[in-house]
Write a structure and sequence with these properties.
The chain is built from 13 helices and 23 strands. By secondary structure, the protein is an alpha+beta fold. Helix 2 links the parallel strand 1 and strand 2. Helix 4 crosses helix 8. It is globular, with a radius of gyration of 25 Å. The structure holds manganese (II) ion (MN).
């Protein structure tokens, strides 16, 4: 569903609040958002951000109810059922299977991106001297931030050799009215495109899409393998194709139902000292050189709305997006690592500091095999601490997790320390992006794992007593 329709719907359900009072783009939006998010409050539409020519929306992803609305579902299960067909596609053995497989592929194909000729995001086109980022209510999030940052951009780039587009989210620091920095880290989709362009000796065309379908915004943050199109995932999750339109000044296709598109290019040899920026670690990330984005056109909806978010000391608005990714990608992780029964990445662990996995242990050393698999898998490879539990542990109850973590381990025997890649934002690690990792085996130990004692039974009530007390319960008046 597009942003304007969501706004109408949320307003009618009391899930969005308009704020007419004048508010500063610097810091004030952050402080208001922080307080409203903390009490599971509404999405906020700031209609009067000082100095800006359009309203700002924030806290779109702040509650599960709004997230389900974004995808047009009423529950997590309903959303999950839309990606399940991908996992069920297997080589057909019988005719009836074949029919089923084709139907499933059709179901996926029916929601592929669809090109349109005319788009709401190109209602107004601003070029040359008309380009002015000052018209947008771009916020400064934290007191020591280097300046104003675009925090919810969907950045579109194309592999210059193979023509495959990528949609990623990289914060953009405003340098002047038509220039920004592009905070894409080494190895991210757009960074790879930029390096290829530099090798070919030409600039990389890029577009920054603001206020597209929020489902598309989410998919730009999803840890998809390279070359898997984010819009295909968005189409599946929304059960509706993403409409795309050709940009006015660059050869890129962008989501048509967007509020604002910044078109331009990045010259791979030019950098800007980007940052500091108060990041989702709750700390400022240091100033580092990043590429520069030159805007060649701004296209907008008839009356555009600018989207934003703030990250910081968790939990913040991005916590729900992280949890959503944990749930959506679990079936795919289980497909690759079948040992895994469940996984939890606690919000306070920032999704890369702490990973909990559970297994039904079948053989000695299986917990270590699972740790190595996690450390070898996509973005999970930067996980700092991985703890493996038995399958009967509810990984989503922090008390239960800590109970087993403390109760079931002997650090001399059950901890492995090793080296590997870490999240670039980790300020504690030995080097930026590289350092120590820890794996903890918190499962019941087998004799072959060096446990020569008798693993004790859990002290739990028997069923007969429970039934007797059930029968007695109403008479006890408790
Ligand atoms: Mn990608």
């Amino acid at each position: 569903m597009d942003l304007k329709k969501l706004i109408t719907m949320w307003e009618s359900k009391g899930l969005l609040k308009r704020i007419g009072q004048p508010v500063e783009a610097e810091l004030e939006v952050t402080e208001i958002l922080h307080r409203v998010f903390a009490k599971n409050g509404p999405a906020l539409l700031f209609e009067n951000v000082k100095g800006a020519k359009m309203p700002l929306i924030t806290n779109m992803f702040g509650t599960w109810q709004r997230i389900w609305d974004i995808f047009g579902v009423d529950s997590q299960d309903a959303l999950m059922s839309r990606v399940r067909p991908l996992l069920d596609i297997e080589p057909p053995r019988r005719f009836v299977d074949k029919a089923r497989t084709l139907w499933k592929i059709k179901e996926v194909a029916g929601n592929l991106p669809k090109e349109v000729g005319k788009a709401q995001c190109q209602n107004h086109v601003f070029m040359g001297d008309e380009i002015n980022l000052g018209d947008l209510p771009i916020i400064k999030c934290w007191p020591n931030d280097a300046g104003r940052f675009i925090t919810l951009p969907v950045v579109v780039t194309k592999d210059p050799e193979r023509g495959i587009q990528n949609f990623g989210m990289y914060r953009m620091q405003v340098i002047d009215e038509r220039t920004t920095a592009m905070h894409w880290h080494p190895g991210k989709g757009a960074d790879i495109h930029c390096r290829t362009s530099k090798k070919l000796g030409k600039p990389l065309e890029a577009a920054c899409v603001l206020g597209c379908e929020p489902a598309v915004t989410y998919c730009a943050t999803a840890p998809l393998p390279p070359d898997i199109n984010e819009l295909v995932l968005a189409g599946m999750l929304m059960d509706e194709p993403v409409e795309i339109v050709r940009c006015k000044t660059v050869d890129l296709m962008v989501p048509a139902r967007s509020q604002i598109v910044l078109e331009g290019y990045v010259d791979g040899s030019e950098t800007f000292p980007e940052g500091p920026f108060g990041d989702h670690t709750g700390y400022y990330t240091p100033r580092r050189p990043f590429p520069v984005f030159h805007i060649t056109a701004i296209t907008t909806d008839a009356d555009p709305i600018y989207p934003s978010t703030v990250v910081g000391w968790p939990p913040f608005e991005d916590a729900l997006l992280g949890k959503l990714t944990e749930r959506i990608f679990l079936p795919f992780i289980k497909f690759i690592i079948p040992d895994i029964k469940d996984m939890a990445l606690p919000v306070a662990g920032l999704f890369h500091n702490l990973v909990f996995a559970s297994i039904d242990k079948q053989y000695p050393g299986q917990a270590y095999k699972v740790m190595d698999s996690i450390w070898g898998l996509g973005q999970l490879s930067t996980s700092k601490v991985v703890v493996v539990f038995d399958g009967d542990v509810d990984l989503h109850k922090e008390d239960e997790v800590l109970f087993h973590l403390g109760n079931n381990i002997d650090p001399l025997r059950d901890v492995v320390i090793k080296k590997g890649p870490l999240d670039i934002l980790d300020h504690a690690s030995l080097e930026e992006g590289f350092g120590g990792k820890m794996g903890i085996d918190a499962t019941r130990k087998l004799p072959e794992e060096g446990y020569k004692r008798q693993w004790p039974d859990r002290a739990i009530m028997d069923e007969e007593t429970k039934r007797k007390i059930d029968a007695l319960w109403s008479q006890l008046g408790l």
